Amino acid sequence: MNGTSVAISFIRKIIQWLFHKLGINILLLIALIIEIPCMYSYYNEHMYEVQMYTNQTFQVMSEPELVSASDLPAGVEDPNDDNYKVMIQIDNLYTKPSPFHPSLYAEDEDGGFYTMQPVDYYADIDSYDVLSVRTYFPAGMRVTLPCYIDATSAEGKTLSFTSTDTLYRTSTRHTSNKNTLTITFP
Amino acid sequence: MKVTCRNCGKRFDYDTYTGLCPKCSTYYRIDSAYDTSADTYDYSETDDDLYGDEEDDFDDSLNSDYSQTSNTIEQGKTASIRTSRQSHTENVRSVAFKKNRKLTALLLVLIVLAFIVPFFATQYNIRAKQKENCLSQVIAPVPASMGEPLSFETEDHYRYELTIQSMSVVTDACYQIPDGYQLIGISYTLSEPDAAAEDIIDDNQLSRSLGYDDITPYLCTQSGEYLQPIDAYDIAKAQGDKDYEWRQTTGTSSDFEYPKGTVYFLVKGGDIANLLIQHTNYESTNLLESYQIDQLEVTE
Fold it and tell me: Which of A15, B6, B38, B52 is most enclosed, with most CB atoms within 10 A?
């Protein structure tokens, strides 16, 4: 009889003994034993999410300005079309720095989906890989950055933008309705 | 007829309680084999209703004709003993079930608690943490200048003093700086006014490391962006895969963490606005101090 068979026999005897002693309650005991680490994991995951939480507020600082395709900076989502440029003031009202700027999205009455986000500072050196470079948003600070949106699709519409600053696709914790920006495009 | 409960030992009147023990509610089977030792078995007192369907025939035969052959009586007794054994087994199971029922209830309560307590504790802690970490308005960093000692105090009141010594353009070819960009090196010194003289280590190490405290620089550009310092690993890799000792000796880091060191930023030419320095504690998630140096002199 090798070690494995002894172990299996031992486990089987323990289970039989437990079943004899506890009857159907052994199933509840197993459920409890599984549940405790699952709930601990759930707790930790949510507390981790809180650590990454950001509290950013937005404000429109300028009227939409039409920028022709030839004048667009690198990193604009639709570089081949004219874009509207809107200056957005973003406040990081949190005691931790944020590693990313928010992305703003809007949905019109017809179900059309629009996104608007600041252009990455290092967008023109995407291929540079000797040093890792990125922007950061320090705690408690304010930045005013230009955001661009495709002029063809946004023209003549009034859109309400909200932040999609979410860590997880299923999480609603980071989507804050208080940060809704309503912008009318000429 | 007085009988003794086989489960708890309570003596009670069988007819008054119709066979149910008043103490433990165990049903007393009158035909049990154990009865003979404790009580006199009297067929005339037996109520037919006390028996199950299987025993009815036997009871009827006993009550209707006492003069039956001894063979028939023997069969009846055998059947009675068999029935009593079954009854005893059922009683044991019944008792076991009652004991298990308490355990079942306990386990169910524990399962529910194990679900509810972490759920509500999480919700409470998340809200408390968010409330604690949210700011009502943006902060105004303390104005500072290059060469001025900037004081930082940890939550346990240990002080560090940071001095920005110089800013220079790094031109090493190993970094392959893209056109239009500059690699800026910011040299600093970090001292510990509270450290005892014998605790000072010469090997470019703080006598007491910052631990959860971070003193981090951000270079603000004219376009309003805050840039993150270049990672020390990238600098070391570009310098020819230098190891930790090299980083420590040269003080290469992405935070202010060595007594003498340098942090690096990649920035567009002529785009530097100011340098922001923030002190945060990552364990308590508290923002402790912020300084902003506006007058920056960059040497070539």
Answer: B6
